Known about the structure:
By secondary structure, the protein is an alpha+beta fold. It folds into two domains: 2-237, Hsp33 domain (3-Layer(bab) Sandwich), CATH 3.55.30.10; 243-290, HSP33 redox switch-like (CBS domain Like). It has helices spanning 22-32, 36-56, 108-112, 143-153, 187-200, 203-209, 212-219, 243-250, 255-265, 283-287, and strands at 2-9, 14-20, 63-70, 77-82, 86-91, 116-123, 131-136, 158-167, 170-181, 225-227, 233-237, 267-271, 278-282, 293-295, 302-305. The strands form three sheets. Strands 1, 2, 3, 4, 5, 6, 7, 8, 9, 10 and 11 form an eleven-stranded mixed β-sheet that branches. Strands 12-13 form a two-stranded antiparallel sheet. Strand 6 and strand 7 form a beta hairpin. Helix 1 (22-32) packs across helix 2. The N and C termini lie far apart (54 Å).
Amino acid sequence: xxxxxxxxxAQGEIRIIGADTTxxxxxxxxxxxxxxxxxxxxxxxxxxxxxLCHVLLKNNRDRIxxxxxxxxxxxxxxxxxxxxxxxxxxxxxxxVELRPRxxxxxxxxxxxxxxxxxxxxxxxxxxxxxYSSSVNLTxxxxxxxxxxxxGMSEQIFSAVLLxxxxxxxxxxxxxxxxxxxxxxxxxxxxxxxxxxxxxxGQLTDALRSSKMLEILHQxxxxxxxxxxxxxxxxxxxKCRCSEAKALDALAYFPLEERQRMISEDGGAEVSCHWCGExxxxxxxxxESISGEEIRCPECRxxxxxxxxxxxxxxxxxxxxxxxxILMS
Length: 328
């Protein structure tokens, strides 16, 4: 079972969060049929998003979307997570595999790229507008980029450790640790935590022989660790897709295209990019799409469908450049 635990050290001067995400990363890599390079990038991003939730969010209904958009061949990595421990995500090009680096490690930085940005979007559902902030990528290795984001955007000294190790049968272990020095921390506390992190080694090596609680004790050695969580928070890779949402997506296709799907294929296959779930929508299900539609006369983009919330408003511009005019 994947899980997350939280604690404080040095009488509240240090915040530390640890997550063992082995099972959920293995699930995500299997669903998306990733290469090892893509799987490592995805696993680190999923874990990083879960850790960020516990330093950036306060309401259980809020969510974080973490996006690493670089110039590498993976084409971007996206993860969506909440305080409920549920996460989902994908890599644009999951089959990309790169040669290992000279030190033998997977070249995640080469896959993500070093030119681009890391963006964090906080959604405050069902109220308020999403809040987005971004900084330039540091290395594309994910952990360093999240560390840079927290330092530049949140102005809090942080250290992030992320790792995904593959074995002969797939994901062997995966996890992450986020350490933050809180305002007012003493110099000797900062020096101790820095020394502990420098001597810690690789997280995936530690996960081979130690539980996450033991790892947090190692990182906070000499500072006294007090756990905030009485019970570990279960974590899982889970999507919010459904047949109804798949049908809503299909409704964006013009009626003539939907009829062609029925006549030529007897239905349509719809794949969720978030989780890789593939659904077959029969001709009867597709024919159930009803309601008056208003589409762009030029590009046939859907402007409005009866029974749905407003998709685009009068006087806005369609993607093709045409002014939108909705008839009442």
